[in-house]
User: Fold these one by one.
Assistant:
Number 1:
Amino acid sequence: MKTEILEIDPANPDGRLIERAAAVIRKGGLVAFPTETVYGLGANAFDPVAVRRIYEAKGRPADNPVIVHVASVEGAKRIVAVWSEPAQRLAHRFWPGPLTLVLPKKECVPKEVTAGGPAVAVRIPRNAIALALLVVSERPIAAPSANRSSRISPTRAEHVLRDLGGRIDLILDGGPSQVGIESTVLDLSSDRPRILRPGMISKAEIESVIGPLKDHSPGLTVGPMRSPGQMVRHYAPRTPVEIAAGDGRVRVRELLEHGLQVGYVSFGAVGQALLENEGFLVPVTMPETPGEYGARLYEALHRLDDRHLDRIIVELPPDTPEWLAIRDRLWRASAENNAPGGT
Ligand code: TXA
Ligand code: MG
């Protein structure tokens, strides 16, 4: 299959291009499209065959359900059996935006979407291209991140092309994703709301709208999440990623002495030129605010991964609530080395 790429202006999406993409969705094809978090790989959520094609293209295990994207709260209510008061309040506060709500599903949602489970994950993305596609296709769109299973999520069309080129019908290239890491996933399907995946919308922000979460939703210590089928090793580049204990430069120098080719992702400012003089091959300085860091993280990992290095050394941001989601993704990127991995 040849994958077509359409460049499209996120500030003012061309209706003709959106219509072409919507036609692909309506006839059961796969369209990768930008959202504010990462690029999604979309199919008509009401078409089980099309949804199965998502799993095939990604090589995704069948037990990991996918998020359904909708254009409005009305659209969410069409697939959700119980639209609760907390759901309404959170949607009002955070949608369109990077918060996914897991709620009891209606009969009309195919089992392929929820991996056979009784609840469906839903969100309204904050991206004009995604919203236009949802409106024009007149379908809810099931879309996991547009990467091969267990690889890093794409924040640019070229990342999608590299991973899924030849396996999907169309990529809408709407430039870089602004948030840069995946949405917060909040399970509201039982009377004990809990965060299944941390994201840029924090536990504190959610609690400010619906009151304290009773559970031990990921606090400061990151670890395996409880979303069904979610793998420990996820969001990982091909190059082994190692979290530095303390100053990453010490570890990089050690590996350089052993003749390894090493990428270095520092936290905060370091003298780029000085490091290069020392033989640091690809030093990347990451921003010191979570928002900017998140926006650049996957792009940095993709770029380092392309260099076919022996190792990527990463310095962790501080162990504070606002860095939780980013620490979670870094931990996952490195899980192959540091923790008993999934597949
Ligand atoms: O930001 C995002 O969420 C992006 C964009 C494209 O919307 N999507 C994304 O999808 O990251 P994916 O499939 O890579 O991650 C979806 C997460 C997984 O951890 C999955 O287990 C969880 O949401 N999930 C999906 N449906 C669920 C359900 N019915 N119950 C519980 N967890 C669910
Ligand atoms: Mg994903």
Number 2:
Amino acid sequence: MRLTNYEKRMLDGEQGEAVKFSMEILTKIGESYGAETLVEVKSVHAAAVYPELLASVEMMEGFANRGGCFRVPTTADPAHQPCNFNRWPDLPEPAEYLDKARRILLAIEKMGVIPNWSCIPYFQGNTPRFGQHVAWVESSAICYANSVLGARTNRLTMGLEIAAAITGRIPCFGLHLDENRKGNTLVQVEYTPKTLSDYGTIGYIIGKHLSDRVPVIKGLPPQTTANQLKVLGAAAAGRGAIGLYHAVGLTPEAKTEEQAFGGNKPEKEIKIGSKEIEEILGEINTAKSEQFDAVLMGCPHPNIDEIMDLARLMIGKRVKPGIKFWIFVSFDVLATARKMGYADIIEEAGAQFVEGDCILFFAMKDWGWKTVLTDSAKYANILPSEPTCVSVIYRDTAGCVAAATI
Ligand code: F3S
């Protein structure tokens, strides 16, 4: 790789052990992907997750113990938060597991992370401008940054983003390059999404059929919001490995279909109509009965308007006995919901907020849950797999509230 003099000095250790270690990782990865240079990144979104994996704890501590210090603004994805440790005595979490979770948080905080603990950093101040290079993890956030903001990041594996935060650099390959951002498949949407979950269902179909291509989506309503695109992208990125999509007339690299394809001919074309939606709902819903142990909402973390809509649905309702009703949410959005009174309505109905966290970071596999109800296509995709292995009932938000409350 061609490095600048400044980068060469970083690699030689002029700026300390953590920078040298990070540069060694970045240059090796860059070379393996054929990157010719590094690019400067304007922000990082980092993950301090998976406390069940000792390797993820040791990796984070390895950077911190070498004197790692973040030099670009670096936000944090949800992680298992001390305020949620063993919060439900009937659903215990092993002390050893919680110790690892605490160690990860201490290590990343020591390096200067902005502790927003949310998978929607782009709504919370980490909002790169069009064309800026960033180094993000979290598949849904990556998809949003590339597609809706027009920023540039690859789907990074954990650890690389920490090296990027310490050096302010990332290898220039993949979605950092113009030629890899052109659309190569066409998605014709012939269905009018009515609920937020409908956008998730469309994203799920795209992820299933198009894997890691760059879809160009036609036919979404012109009034589609950023939040709806958030949900669509999260499901596409979770079900497949979509890092970038273009929605004609809605996203910045797709003012027209021609611009989105950039001269490419579509290699593949799929149609999403009512029939395709019906068929996929049969696949997403893996539960054999209507019984469930918990309702899980907030994937990706909700905006305040989603909390407002949920509060409206829950006025005068009561969560059925024996059911856990959890909404995963960022600290910021929950603080706003408390000020506005929406949190009170939801909590009075018997639901609970889980701040800065995600169900994936709880030691849930030992809880004996068999089935969960969710309004998130991304959760519906992930939860039936290891390590959680539960069946899923997938409904829109109103459907979840109707099924879980009296
Ligand atoms: Fe966020 Fe967890 Fe979903 S990190 S996108 S709530 S799987």
Number 3:
Amino acid sequence: MMNLALNTATTRHQWDLRAAVEGCKRHGLSAIVPWRDQVLEIGLEKSSKLLRDSGLAVTGYCRGGMFPANSEAGRRLAIEENRRIIDEAFAIGSPLVVLVCGGLAEDSNDLSGARKMVLDGIHSIINYARSANIKLAIEPLHPMQAAERSCINTLAQANDICDALEPSGSSTLGIAVDVYHVWWDPELKKQIDRAGASRLIGFHLCDWLVPTHHLVTDRGMMGDGVINLESIAISMFNAGYKGTPEVEIFSDYWWSQPADEVINIARKRAQRVLERLF
Ligand code: ZN
């Protein structure tokens, strides 16, 4: 059994949640990170039972966030939605919810305003998450996605949010380090060290292809691109990260391949990066 999770987005066009669970078991992966739509597709209760009976660890739930909105009502709706997502994470036995924080509010170019809405949004759900014993993993997204998906784009911003909302250092808040989004950051190692063991609660693996044809659906398989995965893995290890790294590849190409082959390759490639560390 390998300490590796499948993020179910990787095989979302080939496998539903049931098939993904079976696939993880067949390929000796220890964990799974389901997406909400796939959970709700077969129902929360059935998904919870399926996951709990599977013997796999559920190491995350995708995703919450999307806080900015151009009205008070819209922002309130987002907070209610995030509370439901926390409940669902609890039901399926996930220790955390991944937060894709949201980009600009509709018809707005107020980036600093959007960032404030993200801070306020996380602030509004943190106690709810804490009482459910669910962590919130802030995932910075590549700056080219600042408008549409997340205005939190660097590990420094994510660390700043943690500092602002949990000054005592308690750790309901944490950070998901997705190599695709942060590999280019000159402060990468420094900010991984700053986050430290208690905040590093997600480590997502894929690769950056050259050229990249689509910002969301053209991720590479580990080893096919230009990210120095080994060096990032070493930084994570040295900073005290002790979780289950996760394969997360959104890719039209890999979605067109047989899922068993995708997992087989991903497992081998991940092993090269992670062996001796995790
Ligand atoms: Zn990710």
Number 4:
Amino acid sequence: MTLSISFSESPSLQFDTVIVDIYEDNRLSAHAETIDRDTGGMIKHHLETHPKFKGKAGQTLVLTTGKDSPYLRVILLGLGDPEKIDHKESEIIGGKLFLALRNSAAESAVFTIHKDEARSNIKSADLAAHLSMGCVLRSYKFDKYKTNISDDASSSPEMVLEISGEAAEAAEAVFENLYSEAEGVFYARNLVNEPANTLYPESFAQSIKDELRPLGVEVEVFDEKKLQKMGFEAHMAVGQGSAHQPRLVVMKWAGDKDGNFKNPMSFVGKGITFDTGGVNLKPNGSIEEMKLDMAGAAAVVGLMKTVALRKAGADVLGVVALAENMNSSNAYRPGDIIGSLSGQTIEVSNTDAEGRLVLADSLTYVQKTYNPAFIVDLATLTGAMMIALGFEYCGTFVNDNELWDKMEVASHNSSEKLWRMPLDPAYKKEMDSQIADMKSLGSSGRYAGACAAAGFLERFIEEGTIWSHMDIAGVSWVKADRPTAPKPATGFGVRILNQLIKEYEA
Ligand code: BES
Ligand code: ZN
Ligand code: ZN
């Protein structure tokens, strides 16, 4: 299904579906009164005879009109409590509206923005824009490998949703900005959903070049020879067991007016295109979904796309560390002692703890080369984070309270939820090794595994660097559909980081 959204003062298209939004009190708006009259009192009749439809947030009721009606159906859409509705709720409602539209095979629908209401917590234009965003995010589909799409009930032809009313122009302006986020999210989801036989470091890097260069992002790819020469020893060790050689991709968006790329806001993504666990092979039940292990990198490149599309007025750096963690005669082993770009040596405790190794070199590289304003890394780093927070919150470690404050604002503005996790010298200390500068797993074993991983990364953060680590293992891949994201890949990270950049731009 492709969904397109259009905006106009008065409906310009022949539509088959009218959407009528109703708050919990079932009080009809002026627009709803008109539709009610058009349909011979159908809305009021159903509100009276359908006691289960109560205008609750996201509730929908599809009504089929009579043969004399100018349209085929009316969809009643609950908005819930007018004092509670906000931009997040509007997106969730939009996601549910999309399902009602799709399930009723609507091809063209109209949503009329009413006048702002004093009792409502949200401006009508914002409501319409975020509702549209919810629809768009829920309409995502990954069906490129289906050879017979027409057999698939959920894939109907194109659908147009028209937002009409006096405030359509204002709604369009808000939506346009949101849509650049949707495009970044879709790119990230596409990459995560893509299987590892087609998406490996080299092809991932090629996709980034193809997608971002035309938008004005400078993209540089380091191949295995360059990485070897530069001293990315930890990154190279992780990738050495695979026929697909590692890559590092550096993306620059120079949006700041001064034109010299300086103190960029920097984002680093873990891009393990498949994580078998290596010699410490993952068991059945844990290995099947491991094409997702590049979701951090996907979020970073999705973010770069969004930033370029909206022409952000800031210098933004994206770095993704790409490698495949395979088991082979050339694979690195538990007990190996490897070097790193920072010069520190690492005793490999377990080859399945590979993400922290590739990230370590990228963190060093960014600090040594770019004097970043701050660095945020994103990684599907630990199963322990999923044990701690499940699928709802992204566990976030941060060494600077001002950055955390801005991340909280960004979280509010984007609907992507964060929970602050502790950094502590004890977690760093437990990585001490007898025979190298550190080992890759802490002495607490499986306890506080996500915190220990953050403690490991912190050993690569230099004095004065403002840094945050987001462990997205639980939130980048979901087993059940979400209101605004069909399973599995969510594209988590694009929206919150785009909002974070906006906080610093402002
Ligand atoms: N990629 C995994 C973490 C992961 C697990 C992400 C499940 C998404 C879903 C990571 O590389 C890993 O294997 N971590 C190990 C660490 C262990 C060896 C200490 C884990 O979490 O089991
Ligand atoms: Zn692993
Ligand atoms: Zn991994």
